[in-house]
Amino acid sequence: MTEAVQNVSQPQIEVENLNLWYGEKQALKNISMQIPRNSVTALIGPSGCGKSTFIRCLNRMNDLIKNCRIEGKVSIEGKDIYGPDVDVVELRKKVGMVFQKPNPFPMSIYDNVAYGPRIHGANRKDLDGIVEKALRSAAIWEETSDRLKSSALSLSGGQQQRLCIARTLAVNPRTILFDEPTSALDPISTSRIEDLIMNLKKDYTIVIVTHNMQQAARISDYTGFFLMGELIEFGQTRQIFHNPQERSTEDYITGRFG
Amino acid sequence: MVRERYLKQLDLLKESVLSLGEMVELVFRDSMTSVIDLDIKLAEKTIALEPEVDKLEEDIEASVFDLLALQQPMASDLRLVVSTLKISADLRRIAGLSINIAKIPGRMEGGHVKPLTDTKRMADIAAFMLENSLRAFETQDVKLAKTAAAMDEEVDKLFYAVWVELIEMMAKDTSIISRATNLLFLIRYLERIADHCCNICESVVYLATAERIKLN
């Protein structure tokens, strides 16, 4: 395996020899990678290659799955997130996640965004400011500022997804994981989310799983290619799409299998 | 195997460049024969091939645009598509310069002002460069591409030697200026053809390695 991204001076996420089993089946095999801070890292690979399983290790979402066993080390900002003293709720506040299907809560736009800060104990008089800031950062303030009390379910799919991003931003995460965030959206909504992701990297570290290779090429700084539970190649996106070092990466991105 | 139609299109694109290359080799060879022998008939026949070369190059360009717009090639496929576009443009220019060469016999009443020994040598090297740059493209042979491009130095040396010689001849005998100038054009065209062969070799290196280097 080539490891083009090595010795990153300030990695946001460091993964060392990560192995994961669902019962008897090994889904991740000895993954090591260093994800640089304030960058967009895209994970690509055919269905079932382990990329979503991997991203779910980064905020311990796999803890919720029965029979799931993990070995190896995942550190975020230098701290082992599988260590005994880790508060998982606190971890998921710092490592936010946006899913494939927009999943707003059945409540108002305002309450969707305020939900996280409220349960984390935000002061009531600060909430308006927090909600506005998050909606602005998620590029949906203009469209929602005059109807904050309307149901979030009245928004279009693309707006709902940006609302979910706003909801994630409202609790001040440092890292945001996106699991195929645009696969249910039309091209215009997709490009708005892509622009948004590229803007967000100023303040956040972003890891995105995508089946859309052009999307990975367009928006990411680094790309990792997964195949059958292994990280085959990880490098600068330019290099991966221009001149991959591994035959299977080349075959996948040129559409020779997949 | 998936994307069969796409892979066939890529193969076809590569074959088209090689066909264009063969045609350009023919145009170049015949244009040189026509100027050496001052064979106006052969020159006219050669000049008549220009639209065919242009059409082939335009078809390649159209295929490249289609592939880029509809198939979004990546990695080595992208490099093939981009190199193809550049190589076919270089080949078209070589054909254009060869056509210029074929126009010289019609202006050479009175024969050559000197034996064409060095000029023939330039043409032989350029033909060798063209042939090998195309073979290097076909087989993605970086070493061959670099060897072919390295011959450009000798073409340049011969160009300057013949240039100086012709200027001196014209200074001594002004009656030959018109014919000698045609010969100056000829060596200039040959020198340019060799440069385009170097460009092709650079495209081959890029295609095979993703490295962009200068070879002349």
Describe this structure in words.
The complex is a heterodimer of chains A (258) and B (216). Chain A is built from 10 helices and 11 strands. By secondary structure, chain A is α/β, with parallel strands linked by helices. Helices cover 34% and strands 27% of the residues of chain A. Chain A has a 7-stranded mixed beta sheet, sandwiched between helices. In chain A, strands 3-2-5-6 form a 4-stranded antiparallel beta sheet, with helices on one face. Chain A has a single domain, classed as P-loop containing nucleotide triphosphate hydrolases (Rossmann fold, 3-Layer(aba) Sandwich). In chain A, helix 3 crosses helix 4, helix 3 packs parallel to helix 6 and helix 6 runs parallel beside helix 7. Classes of the chains: A alpha/beta (258), B mainly alpha (216). Chains A and B meet through helix 8 and helix 10 of A and helix 4 of B.
Number of strands of chain B: 0
Residue-averaged pLDDT of chain B: 96
How far the N terminus sits from the C terminus of chain B, by CA atoms, comes to 40 Å
Largest interface: A-B, 15 and 15 residues
What is the CA-atom radius of gyration of chain B, in angstroms?
Answer: 19 Å
The helix/strand class of chain B is mainly alpha
List the domain count of chain B as a whole number.
Answer: 1
In CATH, the topology of chain A is named Rossmann fold
Task: List the uncertain runs of chain B.
Answer: none
The oligomerization state is: heterodimer
Question: What is the chain-wise order of helices and strands of chain A?
Answer: EEEEHEEHEHHHHEHEHEEHH
Mean pLDDT of chain A: 93
Specify the CATH class of chain A.
Alpha Beta
- Count of helical segments of chain B? 8
Please name the fourth-level CATH homologous superfamily of chain A.
P-loop containing nucleotide triphosphate hydrolases
Order of the strands making up the biggest sheet of chain A? 1-11-10-4-9-8-7
- How many helix segments of chain A? 10
How large is the share of residues in beta strands of chain B?
under 5%
